[in-house]
Amino acid sequence: MTTPNMTPSLSPLRALLLAAASVLLLAGCGGSDSAASAGAAKRVELLNVSYDPTREFYREFNASFARYWQEKTGQEVAVKQSHGGSGQQARAVIDGLDADVVTLALAYDIDSIQKIGKRLGADWQTRLPNNSSPYTSTIVFLVRKGNPKGIHDWADVARPGIEGVAPNPKTGGGARWIYLAAWGYALQRELGGSFDKLQDPAAAAEVARAQQVAEQFVGQIYRQMPVLDSGARGSTNTFVQRGIGDVLLAWENEAMLALKEMGPDSVELVRPSMSILAEPPVAIVDTVVDRKGTRQVAEAYLQHLFTPEGQQIAAKYFYRPRDAAALEQYKAQFPDMQMFTIDAAFGGWQKAQADHFADDGSFDRISLGRR
Amino acid sequence: MAGHGSSAHAAELASRPGRDGLMSALARWAFISVSLAFLAALLFAPLATVFVTAFSRGLGDYFASFSDSDTAAAIKLTLITAAIVVPLNTIFGLAASWAIAKFDFKGKSFLITLIDLPIAVSPVISGLVYVLLFGLQGWFGAWLQEHDISIIFALPGIVLATLFVTFPYVARELIPLMEQLGNDEEEAAITLGAGGWMTFFRVTLPKIRWGLVYGVILCNARAMGEFGAVSVVSGHIRGLTNTMPLHIEILYNEYAFVSAFAVASLLTLLAVVTLVIKTLVEWRTGYRRRR
Amino acid sequence: MAFRQPSILPGFGLTFGFTTFFLGAIVLLPLTALVVRTAMTDWNHVLEVVFSARALASYRLSFGASLLAASINAVFGFIIAWTLVRYDFPGRKIIDALIDMPFALPTAVSGIALTAVFAHNGWFGQYLEPFGIKIAYTWIGIVIALTLIGLPFVVRSVQPALAEVQRDLEDAAETLGAGRFYVFRRIILPTVLPALATGFTMAFARAVGEYGSVIFIAGNLPLKTEITPLLIVIRLEEFDYGGAAALGFVMLLISFVMLLTINLLQAWGRRRLVGDRR
Lengths: 371, 291, 278
Fold this sequence. Notes:
The complex is a heterotrimer of chains A (371), B (291) and C (278).
Chain A: H1 10-28, H2 33-38, E1 43-51, H3 55-73, E2 76-84, H4 86-94, E3 101-103, H5 107-117, E4 135-136, E5 139-144, H6 154-157, E6 164-167, H7 173-190, H8 204-223, E7 228-229, H9 232-240, E8 247-251, H10 252-262, E9 267-270, E10 274-276, E11 282-284, H11 286-292, H12 295-305, H13 308-316, E12 320-321, H14 324-329, E13 338-340, H15 342-346, H16 349-357, H17 362-368
Parallel strand pairs in A: 1-2, 1-3, 6-7, 6-8, 10-13
Antiparallel strand pairs in A: 3-11, 4-12, 5-8, 5-9
Helix pairs in contact in A: 3-13, 4-5, 7-8, 8-17, 9-10
Chain B: H1 8-14, H2 22-54, H3 58-64, H4 69-102, H5 108-120, H6 123-134, H7 141-146, H8 155-165, H9 169-181, H10 184-191, H11 196-225, H12 228-234, H13 244-253, H14 257-267, H15 269-290
Helix pairs in contact in B: 2-14, 4-8, 4-9, 4-11, 4-13, 6-8, 6-12, 8-12, 9-11, 10-11, 11-15, 13-14
Chain C: H1 12-40, H2 43-50, H3 53-86, H4 92-98, H5 101-104, H6 107-118, H7 125-128, H8 139-164, H9 167-175, H10 180-209, H11 212-218, H12 228-237, H13 241-273
């Protein structure tokens, strides 16, 4: 394109372009202060990129760690927090958010940081005890006060006419635990109360049939849902505040927190006979800590999660502690439940993701079947 | 009665002789009631829920919501972003509307459509494009990291995303207005020997002032309220890269409904700013007219 | 033939240069990244994502609901703008100032507030539900959310144009015996039409891409109340940047064609209607 008529107006044009460029440039210099502060020995900053329901827990835990670290080394540590959906947070780290540590909802998301972002070692899950997850949770139900629909187990949720509320497994990490919990329940019921036959090549036909029944079962639950929120907190609000649905499927810690925050006079908690053992993992982001020189303090931060003090705080915020003493102390809060692991029932996260949540996975089959 | 005196323009319009018949009274009544009913259902009711929730635990809790340092940081970040974005887009809007409305050239509709595009781009994508450009896996990511420059997950990214989202607002407000007004007066001024800048400031600007005011107000409102695009490039670091809308979401997700809606109610203060700006412009106009 | 018609007005080089530079830097460069990212993705995958049953259903919903919302806005936005410009009544200035609120409020807040109002236990919802009218978690809720976020465009575009309509011309026409409708159709409408069309276009464009307010009121059921931006989020959640870019590219393409059509029609209409005045 030609731009004729270049009369006396040329110099104002230059001035304008210059002004615009300098503003952009000025803005560009604003963001690089984190690296500078890391060098100072007196004070160190960590960034913990986490998922949504852990805010309250990490607020208290960070204070506890800061005290511990100050006592031990005399160094002041400030932990910055970032919260959001687990997958969204993983993406941010892949795309360059400089997290020293990630504490997410599922191992699949940290695996993705490793695979796509190459920001940490492939062995991340074996560097810390217990599959690198310091606390666990499970999936439970919230029902209306007095349990008017008599919902006690997964089979009740699948009853015709029961409206469940849960987040969309395609958009939320917690939502996938919920989906798999329902599936695992149906699968082991079909297989006679154990997952052993999954490993037995001779039982392949029986397993295939059981998987089909499980898909029917989970499909029945999800086809009756009036709303699929994009995240766990959204579902909680839909159920409690908007009064939609008969039963909310939720993380145990979310359900207990909602019960505490929204008042026990409107809803009550129901534990199914069996559920999934949800293991939210934590990891150090190698490339970041090596560049910032924060590896030592970041490692101490994650190890602190496994100490009795860290375990106490986790239990206080409704996460099931791994530590036997802490679990014993909070026994009333965490009754024994029969739980299965994702490895036993689904062969790990990668396989579960491919079988159920990828394109044409079981969730797609179920949701496209709806009319 | 609200709007007394300073709304000379509207009052003058409404009280014209020869329009006071029964028909105009009826039309007036119908227009006002339809407008109010529509706005009540769609706009005032949701706004009211914001305030009802914000004040549900009394004044003390309402004001306590703003004492949090993270909230203060979020408000500051939002103001800084708007202060950079709005002037840039205003300059662009004036330049674009002059080029497009005052001259005839080929491909004009095409150019206007390109200017429109950012409105049609989903906020999710508006954020994503900057990730594709400046993210660690993006085109310039490795280079930026090498030189220790942060764009996304820092202020520049937030500014860029906001700039993109609010890009068309001033321009699109001014273009149809300038086209409608025509070139006669400007051409007369130039013929009489006035310079380009003088013609613009003395002839054009007074005529387009309302369009400019609305454009700037819309641009500013959107710059402060944008959530989706900023959410993608912000990184959500508490007290550092959370803007007001992001912080509101965080508060809401923490079951701090009162605080969330209290901060949201702060954004309605923008309406007061609008009121002041409009009154100021009306006052200046009245002043000129009398002179 | 020349690129530009001659004019005695100055400043074309300056303003056109700055416009294209800024447009290129802020809009075209990022959008190029989107197009290139789509092109780099495996084409089978792109086709699969873009033409899946869910995607097709979501285009229908997103574009249909947006068109409906923009039309509602064109009608009521015009009435509101007319009321605010032509009549004085108690509270006019306050209402006028509140028109921009749908932009200032974060979309999530609008979505939550609308859902609270229209859910079956909400202020309006409780009266509508007995009549079998469900708004929250249906497509009607989506249309309402999209209407709300587009409203300021129409009102704010029409207001200045309406204020500039030459009243003398109107009065003269009326004195000469022209009917009200005639005056409206032949004098007011042609003057305001470009602004109204602009408002409609922008309200439509904004609605197509909207995400934040819709997800709260939509219900998000696949094939039924799932909008295209939600599908993009779902793609991203699977770390499928290519699929997300592809969906974004399709939306961009459809929006671009529709906007260009509207803008061309507008330019054509302007030459016909106001041409004699220039």
